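tool_call predict_complex ligand=guanosine-5'-monophosphate
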Amino acid sequence: MELLKERIRREGVVVSNDVLKLDAVLNHQVDPQLIMEMGKEFARRYREERVTKVVTIESSGIPIAFATAYELGVPMVFARRKKTLTTDSDSYCERIPSFTKGIVTDIMIPKSFLTEQDRVLVIDDIIANGDAARGIIRIIAKSGADIAGFGVAVEKDFQKGARTIRELGVRLDSLVKILRLEPGNIVMED
Ligand code: 5GP
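tool_result ok
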């Protein structure tokens, strides 16, 4: 997606050879027009997939997931991050390591929001090692819902996450693929 690539080129900041700061574009400030275009693009790719729900993880996935759900005309559900994993029989919970924060967090979705009648499109901001993605896929599997696919705004191609999701047999679409990060230079796929 050219529009997103352009914004990443202008506003992304290389923090290290595996971390790209995208606070101005996705993680702290969002441009509603850009986000709606991203939602339109994911909706275009999944229009024929009989999606009943868009699922994401708080917080950076929410705007993109909202825009996608709006375009598809279905509800959006986000997994909440919890500080402590108290057993809760009314929710599906999973523990995931956080790539950027270096801690583990627990994510949960109430059972009433995901059922075996659902066909889910998962949306997230960035995929790195894929821990968040695998956590949300485990939650969806527990609920008995189907997964139509996984849409991420930014795929860091040099980390293993996207590959491990595709190896699970899950369709994964990204809008921008980052091939590598160099000091002051973000190398993206054409
Ligand atoms: P994963 O679980 O795939 O390793 O990491 C996924 C989450 O970590 C993403 O939802 C994203 O918020 C965060 N993340 C991973 N890599 C980066 C990065 O290079 N920059 C930023 N800003 N966030 C990242």
